[in-house]
Amino acid sequence: MLALMGFLMVIAFMYLIMSKRLSAMTALMLVPLAFGIALGFGPQLGAMSLEGIKKVAPTGIMICFAILYFGVMIDAGLFDPLISRILKAVKGDPMKVVVGTAILAGIVSLDGDGSTTYMITCSAMLAVHRRLGIHPLILPAMAIMQNGVMNILPWGGPTGRVMSALSLEASDVFVPLIPAMVAGTIWVLFVAYRIGLKERARLGTLHLQDTVPGPATANMDKENQILKRPHLFWINLGMTIILMAALVKELLPLNVLFMIGTSLALIINYPKLKDQQARIATHAANALPVIVMVFAAGIFMGIMSGTKMVDAMANSLVSVIPPSMGPHLALITALASLPFTFFLTNDAFYFGVVPILVKTAATYGITPAEIARASLIGQGAHLLSPLVASTYLLVGLCGVEFGDFQKYTLLWAIGTSIVMLALALTIGIIPL
């Protein structure tokens, strides 16, 4: 019953947001509450919700101050030279912009953190996309698809979890998957090229003087030009590089780093208290919708975990595998990782489901490393799950609806996993 209700809850949530009957924020809160009450957990729902909120609170704080920090940097003109160079390089060609966005997202994704990837990619490319009139869903699609491939890096979340759960080394799990990651990246770039060609056909190769100026560009209105701090460019650049290096090195928690960075950015660029308050008020409008979405997701995850629906869903998915398919359990794991990692959290899948699969696979001579590699294939589409907090940051930065974003990107993202699986099977790193 718990498993059935869990699947029904996720399906109901997806239907409500994709059909636009509810916003993602309200659906994340009301749907699990309704199902929790129906299951008889009414008195415990408050504690479950609070536990989920506590878990996402650091992410919410980090997102809040990250949006403020990069908002201040955009106001101060830090990214203007980069945007100008990109515009000159692409010469108004939407196809080059889309492919360049995917390449940039791949490079930034090397730090293994999705939030950082989205913030840097969007800060650098959003104004270019808007200036050329490119469809607003394309930028977040390129960023999340490329980040889905790079999410398999050992210092990323899922690979670290599966290595910990199975006591494996990176040489057992990650290194053999590198060719599959290369194939996944090529697929993302191919998708970017195809989408870019369609945008070029729709928009043409534009002349810069024919385009409408967007935010964070050189040709902005007088009011925004007043906010520019060109004399502080190198200071702002150095501060941002130090911040990114500290993020990668994990010198302090991400939320603390961005709180410190935001404070310094405001004081250095806008020393007057009135100007600081104006910058905070301006960017709070961008930060608030994302933050409330993260905390709403905390309620969703808290109730799923507290009612044990997640555990029941995991066990039921494992139990449907017939014994006759045992010798093909690695392939089954790879295919099942798509819905597993979409409907469950990474913690629930890699710490709950994968060890069960490993024990079953051992009876058929399939090694833990092979199951571990197979379990990571689904990461191509995992980040589109409503349970991934950083995705709400991405849609918030790009100003798009979560449901629209899922519908636009999901099939392309599933294609990433299929391409990676095909190569993995071909070269034998995942056995048939």
Shape: globular
Individual helix count: 20
What order do the SSEs take from the amino end to the carboxyl end, as H and E?
A: HHHHHHHHHHHHHHHHHHHH
Most strands sheet: none
- Measure the end-to-end span: 33 Å
Which secondary-structure class do the elements indicate? mainly alpha
Helix content: over 70%
Low-confidence stretches: 209-220
Share of β-strand residues: under 5%
Total strand count, please?
0
Average pLDDT reading: 82
As a whole number of angstroms, the C-alpha radius of gyration is: 22 Å
InterPro entries: Cit_transptr-like_dom, Citrate_transporter
Membrane topology: Multi-pass membrane protein
Domain Citrate transporter-like: 13-378
Subcellular location: Membrane
Give descriptors for this structure:
globular, 432 residues, 76% helix, mainly alpha
Structure characterization notes:
With 432 residues, the chain is an all-alpha fold. It has a domain at 4-52 and 301-427. It has helices at 2-18, 24-38, 45-76, 80-90, 94-108, 114-132, 138-150, 157-166, 170-203, 222-225, 233-249, 254-269, 273-306, 309-319, 329-343, 346-362, 368-375, 379-382, 389-398, 402-427. Helix 7 runs antiparallel to helix 9 (170-203) and helix 15 (329-343) packs across helix 17 (368-375). The longest helix has 34 residues, at 170-203.
